[in-house]
Write a structure and sequence with these properties.
single chain, Ubiquitin-like (UB roll), binds FE2/S2 (inorganic) cluster
């Protein structure tokens, strides 16, 4: 599928993915970071729980929705990683903060 071109000079930074510290190249999108980490699944569907991963990488398909720095339903392909960013896979429906 996708493969990172070799770039030994790439600056690396650390982000938090599902409460685990990981190191990724600076300047790439969160979706690209997920592919870089071989952790492609960005979310699970609310109905069946089937895994989804980035597909278009240009903000059209909405398959890459993730929680980024506490905000749910962010398109991971449209957000560039920053040091210390907190990224979580979105499992099922987003948490809208309301009790049911
Ligand atoms: S991969 Fe399609 S919107 Fe992000």
């Amino acid at each position: 599928m996708f493969k990172q071109l070799s770039d030994n000079k790439a600056e690396m930074l650390t982000i938090e993915l599902d409460a685990e510290s990981v190191t990724v190249p600076a300047g790439i999108s969160v979706a690209a970071a997920m592919l870089y980490l071989d952790a492609a699944a960005t979310r699970q569907t609310p109905v069946s729980g089937s895994p989804r991963a980035a597909f278009c990488m240009m903000g059209v398909c909405f398959e890459c929705l993730m929680e980024i720095d506490g905000s749910p339903n962010r398109r991971a392909c449209q957000v560039v990683v920053t040091a210390g960013m907190r990224v979580r896979r979105q499992l099922g429906a987003r948490d809208n903060g309301q009790a049911s």
